[in-house]
Amino acid sequence: MQKIAGIIVLVLTMVVAPLHAQQRLIVSAAYVEDGDTILYSTLREVQVSPYTSLLTQQEIKKNQKLIRNVKKMLPYAQTGKRELDALEAQLASLPKKKQKEIIKAKEKEMLDRYTEELKKCTISQGMVLLKLIDRETGKTSYTIVNELRGKLRASFYQTFARLFGYNLKAGFDPQHSKQDDLIDRICIMVENGRL
């Protein structure tokens, strides 16, 4: 009787195992090189950072407001970076007079597009945005305005910003500022979909 049960189990294993394996069939692209079949697969980009754990659960709990502000402002900073890169590429081969016209038109377009949204932001969100702009572009907001609109306009904006507690000259330095380091780690986690 045990032999019959063993044979039945063996036969069932031989019949059921291939059927079970066929349900998990994965089709992948491959190519053949020197008789070897090599799997071809595209992996998503990963960012390697010096942090073993970017944020601990305690840091996440403690910095909920900052995380919320970074999540809200990061898309604006990234859009600003793309717009700035496109503008600089467009201006590269144009004469000075034409550059000024294009810069003014772009400034008006950006103000029309984002003023209403950004008016709803809090002061702390605005401060985070200034840090994120520097993080994305590698330039402070003051430097960007100075390069595009001139020193007088940059000084005017800086004076006006100071009335509301902002500093357009404030840089982003995660190596020397704990707050900037925290913002950088939050950004990395947001960009990697971990927050």
Descriptive terms for the model:
single chain; 195 residues; mainly alpha; two-stranded antiparallel ribbon; 8 helices
Commentary on this structure:
- With 195 residues, the chain is mainly α.
- It has a domain at 57-191.
- It is built from 8 helices and 2 strands.
- It has helices at 2-23, 57-62, 64-91, 96-119, 123-137, 141-149, 151-163, 178-191; strands at residues 29-33, 36-40.
- It has a two-stranded antiparallel sheet with strand order 1-2.
- Strand 1 (29-33) and strand 2 form a beta hairpin.
- Helix 6 (141-149) packs antiparallel against helix 7 (151-163).
- The longest helix has 28 residues, at 64-91.
- The radius of gyration is 28 Å and the shape is globular.
- The mean pLDDT is 83.
Structural class: mainly alpha
Q: Based on CA inertia axes, which overall geometry fits?
A: globular
Largest sheet: 2 strands, antiparallel
Number of strands: 2
What is the oligomer described by this structure? single chain
Q: What is the distance, rounded to the nearest whole angstrom, between the alpha carbons of the first and last residues?
A: 60 Å
- Spatial strand arrangement across the major sheet: 1-2
Rg from alpha-carbon coordinates: 28 Å
The overall pLDDT, averaged over residues, is: 83
In the predicted model, the low-confidence regions spanning at least 5 consecutive residues are none
**Can you write the helix and strand succession as a string?**
HEEHHHHHHH
Helix content: 55-70%
